[in-house]
Fold this sequence. Notes:
heterotrimer; A: alpha/beta; globular; C: alpha/beta; two-stranded antiparallel ribbon; 4 helices; 26% strand
Amino acid sequence: MPDVPSVQTMPNNPQLNANGELQHLLSIEGLPREILTQILDTAEPFAGVTEREVKKVPLMRGKSVFNLFFEASTRTRTTFEIAAKRLSADVINLNVAVSSQTKGESLLDTVANLSAMQADVFVVRHGSSGAPYLIARHVKPHEHVINAGDGRHAHPTQGLLDLYTIRHYKKDFTRLTVAIVGDVLHSRVARSLIHGLTTLGVPEVRVIGPQTLLPAGVESLGVRVFHDMRAGLKGCDVVVMLRLQNERMNGALLPSAQEFFKHYGLTADKLALAKPDAIVMHPGPMNRGVEIDSPVADGPHSVILPQVTFGIAVRMAVMSIVAGN
Amino acid sequence: MKLLIKGGRVVDPASGRDEVGDVFISDGKISGKKEKADQTIDAKGLVVAPGLIDLSARLREPGYEYKATLESEMDAAVAGGVTSLACPPDTDPPLDEPGLVDMLRRRAKALARARVYPIGALTVKLAGERLTEMAELAEAGCVAFSQANAPLADTQVLWRAMQYAGTFGFPVWLRAEDRWLAQGGVAHDGEVATRLGLQGIPSFAETIALGTVLQLVRATGTRVHFCRLSTAIGVEMIRAAKKEGLPVSCDVGIHHVHLSEMDLGYYDSHCRLEPPLRSQRDREALAAGLADGTIDCAVSDHTPVDEDQKQMPFAEAEPGATGLELLLPLVLKWGAQKKLPLAKALARVTSDAARVLGVPSGRIETGAPADLVVFDPQQLFRVTPEALKSQGKNTPFLGYELAGRVRTTIVAGSVVYEQA
Amino acid sequence: MSKLPDADALLPKLAAELKARVTPATAMIGLYTGGAWLAERLHPLLGLKDPLGLMDIAFYRDDYAKEGLKHDPKRTKIPFEVEGRDLLLVDDVLYTGRTVRAAMNELFDYGRPRSIALVVLADRGGRQLPIAAQHVGAQVEVPAGKRLRLKRAANGKLSLELEDAGRAERADNAE
């Protein structure tokens, strides 16, 4: 009886080409440390560009970036658009959420139609986990897919800009304790960040939240689970607050925003348990008074605004790396 | 018509017989007499076994003819050595009216390939509210009653349905799944679903429902067949129920014996199945439970889905896999892994399945219906869309080489399939 | 094949030439990596009032479509206003001229200099664009299939070396 291999006859990481270079950015999970570091290192000089008066470089002149957002999002789409334009690329925005999907056109048909329009990069945001993988399997060799968020699976550019922010303020990943607080269950941002932190050698990654907001087997991602926020924040160098969506109250996951804030909201007195030079991060948009209070959000520990600026540099780095491979 | 199958390795799981010999067929039945044959089939070097009995295969008629037709799926069945199959009631409209059942049986009979045993709907439109006319449906040909994959959350209705079926001695076939715990879930609630960001169905969605139904079996005495077990704890619960003497049986989808959540890989929607592929531990318990007989039989759960419905993000893809033509090689593979004698492995898709279905085929003995399969257990074939006769090309095993190829399939003493 | 000149030995000559043209408006920018090393040696010898600028041309190269993004681009830091300045652009090897073309394009995104003078340690000929250096340490002949590179030892000593022109290595002084 021949030994039939497991269905996983996918020897290649779909993100890497035959030379081991990044051709699509779909998820931080599965990317080797060297590629993550390459992206962060490349984002550095792009951050320099964003600080100049002429914020544009001619690198991707003649290339087209198509923003394919099946899930509406002005913030993320805008930062990708700014990043692409600063690379001198042409940008087309498609809010597919509204147009062809409602006409019943399949995901792959939409992509095929756009391929015919000579795209170089597809930036894709979709409500279903795994959608960018499906797209990446079907694009032409010179087309590149960047995942701008798929379901609750991954948001790799957000994870990367969070890593960049941490590196900017804390330098050495291998000495840090990082806590991620809130709705980890539904958070693609949390998953991406966890994979990035563990790959880059952060010795202690913590998740803090009520049982209802932590996914099954979350420890298998390499994190320590805390239900008590005060215990979880002790000695932290970095505190990342996740957004809590209103729907969670309706889904029998939480009773109220008030109770959540009392036990899992970040206030100055809870933050005092972390290291004195701890930084506070948030992927945005913030729900003030739900996961974080204003004095902390606007206070000296908060690096929430720099995160946004770094986000443009990181996205410029990602686009120019994949589109060149 | 007198048929002779000459010189094959005759394997009859019901009697345990496994020896080289001849099989004589006369008037559609297995004959005890050595008579001159009109046609001889040379089975030297091949296995001669009872035709496979598949307790779950969707033929997609009525209602889903764009996915597959009775013709194509019956061709697939006999190409896979399946001589009898039971089809679930989730057609469109569901099999809740005697007229639909009758039409299906006639159509199948006219095609003269495998025998088709329709499973009737337990509730009208499978909606879980009103009982169907089970006696009428049984007269039209239904051998059992089921909800297929539709939930029946109202325990009051479930209880009454079981009582009613039990009145007439009809078995009830149920897939144990708590509707609320399973709602919105597309994968096993565990590490893989967490990594892939997919909504999970916890194991206890199955075991809670199992517990409920087992209690109702105790209360009603109605015979229940549990479809598509998927959890290790579920296997233990069935084992205990059988030990207790409850009138229960169960089956497992053959895919769940070989695959686990690990096989989802990068969102392979061919692995989107109902119930979901669970952990390695669950898979091992299912394979072991099938070996020790706690699980009575393996089924293909054949579900043709067109590629468009599979080439979608995982959670949006239609669940199901094609399986009629892969049931035999996959059962052989499982048997070899468990180091079972061939007769024991084949029992799970022949004599044991016949017992659950309540039909006389599934055995090679004088007077039994001449439903047989002649196959080469060593012959390899590559699973490609072209190689499959089913219109459903959706299988996690695409590209694989499997061993176990059917040469000839005989139903009621007539050759209905010969490998080209 | 002629012997390669001693890099350190060329510095005094270059420094003397440059010192002669320094004005209050003069500032220096070195191109990573070899040009930056060279500029770090020349800058202190010229008494310039502004600190040294360092530039990476990765985002202005003309070969992105073919080669993609060079690995490890560094951050351009120009700690003075470019507007109206007499700039000394320093690179190690002048070959096709494409690097200098990219550097000038980048410079003009910072402002409008009054003038730019090109300072190179070695000119190996082979220009593909109408670019010329105003100050050259030495003319160097490079055999076919070879690449001329500036190397810096641990003790800071600079030296010119030949190596095989392979695709595997994208020299900072690439054409």
